[in-house]
Amino acid sequence: MTRPDRWQDEVLAGPGGAMTDEVGVITGPLTLRTTVVAGGLVRFDVQYKDADEWYVLTGSPRAHHGAPAALHAAALAAVRAGGGAEAPGGGAEPPGGGGAG
Question: Exposed, middle or buried by CB within 10 Å (0-12, 13-18, 19+), for 52?
């Protein structure tokens, strides 16, 4: 069930899977759930498809800056890419970047 404050999709994790706080990397067919929580944050949880137990995607929760659905899409893309995917950031670097020139 998808609510206005929650998004959930099945996703096949790419090579290297998705990194979780509880059990480390998980791979294969997964379900990703993104939920808006208090304080302008979103929480990302993953589970093996059709399993009962959910795991927190490392780096969660993140600030959503008014675009939680976009963060859900970014998290799906990250998990598809694999490589120990973590929760996407809620925003880029400040304007001007952070690198030294």
Answer: exposed
